[in-house]
Design goal:
This protein has 564 residues and is α/β, with parallel strands linked by helices. It is built from 13 helices and 24 strands. The strands form seven sheets. The chain has an eight-stranded mixed sheet with strand order 8-23-24-22-21-18-19-20, sandwiched between helices. A five-stranded mixed beta barrel has the order 3-4-5-7-6. Strands 9-14-15 form a three-stranded antiparallel sheet, with helices on one face. The model is unreliable at 1-39 (pLDDT under 50). Bound molecules: S-adenosylmethionine (SAM). Residues 378-380, 415-418, 420-421, 435-438, 441, 465-466, 486-488, 513 line the site of S-adenosylmethionine. Residues 1-44, 56-75 are annotated as: Disordered. This is tRNA methyltransferase. Residues 1-12, 29-42 have a biased composition (Polar residues).
C-alpha cells in the first residue's frame, strides 16, 4: 500500500468534515473506494466489482454523450433554412479559409465573447435576413456577430446574448460611426422602430431598400440554384410597392395572459396595467412589446387595433392563455354584390371596414376584380402591389415585345389560394385550372370565379396536393400551357417537380415569398433538362417584388421557357 494511496483515502474522509460547498467534487463516475483496518492493523483499500462495472457503464455513457455532442456540432443547418441562409453570409464575412481551419481544429463553437459582454464591431455586410453582420475590432479570432439594425461600414457597440457556429448574436447599443451614405434617421416613421422586430429598413431610402432586396435575390440564386453564369439571366431591379407605408391589410398582434399571481385576485379593470403588452415581439426575442399603432398597416387596421386594445384591457382578467389578435381590412361585406344591379365600383361598395374574427368574410378588390375569402385564410397582405404583380406575370407569359404572337391558351394555377392569379389572368386564356390544399380557399376560389362572371367551362379549382393537378389536366396541350407556381415558404416538393417536368409546360412562372427555396427549385427544374432527364428549360428572368416595404422580406418572380 503506497503512502499516496493512503493519503488519498485520508483526504477523502477529512473532506467529509467540511461543509458540503467546500468539499472536493466527487464525480459520480468514480468507483467508491472504501478504507478499512485489517486484523493486523494494516489499512486495506477495497474497490468492489460492482463499482468497477458501474464505472465502465458511466464511461460508456460519457463516450456516447461526447459522440452525440460531436455529431450535433458537425451537423450543419438544413439547406435553405433561415439558419443556413445566415450561415452562408457568415462564411462570406469570415472567409472560407478561416471557416475551414476553425472546423478542422473543432473550435467553431468557442466564442471569444462572454454572455452579455459589450463589444465594438465593424459591420461588413447586410445579411439576407436584414441584420448587419460584423466582426470584432478587438479580437483576432475569426468570429462574426449578427447585429440587427447595423449597416455595412458602420462601427457599432453591441451586447452579446447568444452564440452559434463561428458567430454570436448581439443587441445594438450604439452606432459609433454611422454610414451616412445609407443611414438617414429622419426617414423613420415609427416610434417603435429599433425595438419592435417587425421592420428592419426604415432608416434606409426606399431605393436602397430595393437595392438590398435585389442583392438577396442575387445571393439566393448563387447559393442555392447550382446554375452556371451562362444559365443565369441578370437579376432585374426590384419592383417597388406603390405604397411604402400604410400598405399592410393584415396585422396579428398578440398578448400574454395575466401572470398567475396577478390573475388570482384580479378584478375587471379599465386602465391598461404595465404588465399587459399588446403588440409584436421585441427585436431578436420572443417577448411581446406594447404597440399602439403600426405605420406600415392601413389606417383602417390601425383604427380597429386601437379600439380592440381598449376592449382587451376590460376583459383581460378573463384570459387564462395568451391570445393572437387578427385585424384584416375588408370592403363592407353587408353590400350584396350578387345582385347585378349593384355598381361594384361605386363609393358605397368601396367602404373599408376591419374584421377581427378569423371566420369572418373578407372582401377585397384587385383592380376591377372582386375576391372573397375567410379572414383567417391566406390572401396577399399588400393590396397596392397586386395589380402590378399580376400585370408583371401576364407580361412574362405574353411578352408585349415578342416577335411572334404567343400560342399559349391554357393556364395551370398551382398553390392557387382563393384564385388570385388564375382569375386575374383568365381573360388571356381559354382554360384555367387551379389547385390548392385548403378546401376552404378552394370554396372561395370557386365562388370568386362566379363573382367575377367567369364560366365554369373556362375555369375550375380543386382541393388537393399541388402535384396532383398534372394528372387532371391531361387534356391541356403542354405546348400551349403556362404553369404558375406560388408555393408556401418551404417551396415545392419532389413529387410536384417530377409531375411538372413530366407534363413539360411551355412556360413556367414561379412566384415565391422565399427566394432561397425558389432558387433551389428552379435549379432542380433546369438541372433535369441539362442532364437529359426531362425537357430543357431556359431561365428567362428573375425579379424581386417588394410586397413588404420597410422590412427585409422580398418576393421573387422567375420565368422559365421550355426549349426542347
Ligand atoms: C403563398 S400562398 C399563394 C396563394 C395564392 N397563389 C395567392 O397569391 O393568393 C401558398 C398557398 O399554397 C397552399 N399550399 C400549401 N401547401 C400546398 C400543397 N402541398 N399543395 C397545394 N397547395 C398548397 C397554401 O394553403 C397557400 O394558400
Amino acid at each position: 500500500m503506497s503512502t499516496s494511496q493512503l493519503g488519498q483515502v485520508r483526504s477523502l474522509s477529512d473532506s467529509e468534515e467540511l461543509p458540503p460547498s467546500k468539499r472536493p467534487r466527487t464525480d459520480a463516475t468514480e468507483p467508491q473506494i472504501s478504507a478499512s483496518t485489517s486484523t493486523n492493523g494494516a489499512q486495506v483499500i477495497a474497490i468492489s466489482e460492482a463499482d468497477i462495472l458501474k464505472q465502465k457503464a458511466a464511461e460508456r455513457r460519457d463516450r456516447k454523450r461526447e459522440n452525440r455532442r460531436k455529431k450535433q456540432l458537425a451537423k450543419l443547418p438544413d439547406p435553405c433554412s433561415a439558419e443556413d441562409v445566415l450561415w452562408k453570409d457568415i462564411q462570406v464575412v469570415l472567409g472560407q479559409d478561416a471557416v475551414n481551419s476553425a472546423t478542422e481544429v473543432g473550435s467553431e463553437f468557442d466564442s471569444p465573447f462572454k454572455h452579455q459582454e459589450e463589444v465594438e464591431l465593424e459591420v461588413k455586410i447586410l445579411g439576407s435576413n436584414g441584420d448587419g453582420i460584423a466582426v470584432s475590432t478587438g479580437s483576432s479570432k475569426p468570429w462574426a456577430v449578427v447585429v440587427p439594425l447595423a449597416l455595412p461600414n458602420e462601427r457599432v457597440r453591441a451586447r452579446i446574448y447568444r452564440h452559434a457556429r463561428l458567430h454570436s448574436f448581439g443587441d445594438l447599443l450604439e452606432v459609433i460611426t454611422p454610414n451616412n451614405e445609407l443611414r438617414d434617421s429622419s426617414l423613420i416613421r415609427c416610434k417603435y422602430f429599433g425595438t419592435c422586430g417587425g421592420c428592419q429598413y426604415q432608416m434606409l431610402s426606399y431605393e436602397t431598400q430595393l437595392d438590398f432586396k435585389r442583392n438577396v435575390v442575387v445571393k439566393a440564386f448563387k447559393n442555392y440554384s447550382n446554375l452556371s453564369d451562362e444559365e443565369m439571366p441578370p437579376i432585374l431591379s426590384t419592383v417597388p410597392s406603390p405604397l411604402k407605408y400604410e400598405y399592410r391589410t393584415k396585422l396579428t398582434p398578440h398578448f400574454e395572459a395575466p401572470p398567475k399571481d396577478i390573475r388570482k385576485n384580479m378584478k375587471p379593470i379599465s386602465e391598461k396595467p404595465d404588465w399587459l403588452k399588446i403588440g409584436f415581439n421585441r427585436v431578436g426575442t420572443q417577448k411581446v412589446m406594447d404597440i399602439e399603432e403600426c405605420p406600415i398597416a392601413t389606417p383602417v387596421v390601425n383604427a380597429q387595433m386601437a379600439a380592440t386594445r381598449e376592449e382587451v384591457v376590460t376583459k383581460v382578467h378573463t384570459y387564462k392563455k395568451g391570445v393572437s389578435l387578427l385585424f384584416r381590412e375588408s370592403l363592407d361585406t353587408s353590400v350584396n354584390i350578387d345582385d347585378d344591379s349593384v355598381d361594384r365600383l361605386s363609393d358605397a361598395f368601396n367602404k373599408q371596414i376591419c374584421v377581427t374574427d378569423p371566420k369572418s368574410l373578407v372582401r377585397e378588390r384587385v383592380g376591377d376584380w372582386i375576391f372573397e375569402y375567410n379572414a383567417g385564410s391566406f390572401f396577399q397582405n399588400n393590396n397596392s402591389v397586386l395589380l402590378p404583380l399580376t400585370d408583371y406575370v401576364r407580361n412574362a407569359i405574353f411578352p408585349p415585345d415578342a416577335p411572334t404572337p404567343s400560342t399559349l391558351t391554357h393556364l395551370v394555377d398551382t398553390y392557387c389560394g382563393a384564385g388570385l392569379f388564375g382569375i386575374v389572368l383568365s381573360p388571356s386564356f381559354q382554360k384555367v385550372a387551379g389547385i390548392e390544399l385548403s378546401q376552404d380557399s378552394i370554396r372561395f376560389a370557386t365562388r370568386n370565379a362566379e363573382l367575377n362572371k367567369i364560366s365554369k367551362d373556362k375555369i375550375s379549382f380543386r382541393a388537393g396536393n399541388a402535384g396532383e393537378i398534372f394528372a387532371v389536366v391531361q387534356d391541356f396541350p403542354a405546348d400551349q400551357t403556362a404553369v404558375l407556381i406560388d408555393p408556401p415558404r418551404k417551396g415545392c416538393d419532389e413529387f410536384f417537380i417530377k409531375q411538372l417536368l413530366e407534363f413539360g409546360p411551355k412556360t413556367i412562372v414561379y412566384v415565391s415569398c422565399n427566394v432561397h427555396t425558389q432558387a433551389r427549385d428552379v435549379g432542380q427544374i433546369m438541372e433535369a433538362g441539362r442532364t437529359g432527364k426531362a425537357k430543357k428549360y431556359t431561365l428567362d428572368s428573375v425579379r424581386g417584388f417588394d410586397l413588404f416595404p420597410q422590412t427585409a422580406h422580398v418576393e421573387s418572380v422567375a420565368v422559365l421557357t421550355r426549349v426542347s
